[in-house]
Specification:
Layout: H1 2-10, H2 15-21, H3 26-44, E1 69-71, E2 74-76, H4 82-89
């Protein structure tokens, strides 16, 4: 089937005429073309990984920063403004 696909690609015939000449249904021909393309794609990616190498940097956590204060589960790592504290208390 792959030889027929290559033969058709080399010719100038329409798919319909080529299929009639070789006694192949057009649906079968297109099925073969799909298999051919998948085959070519898998051969071109042999030995290549689809995984990417990631450069992961450690995240900044609360333990690596100096904790200034905590109020109702809110952690402050620097001094908050008086207006913010007043708004939280209200």
């Amino acid at each position: 089937m792959f030889a027929l696909i290559a033969e058709h690609k080399a010719s100038t015939m329409s798919v319909k005429d080529f299929c009639e000449l070789n006694h192949v249904a057009q649906g079968t021909y297109y099925y073969w073309v799909k298999k051919y393309e998948v085959s070519q794609l898998s051969q071109s990616t042999v030995g290549q990984s689809s995984f990417k190498l990631l450069d992961v940097k450690p995240a900044v956590t609360a333990s690596s920063c100096t904790l200034f204060a905590e109020y109702r589960g809110i952690l402050f790592y620097q001094q908050p403004s008086a207006a913010l504290l007043k708004a939280l208390i209200d």
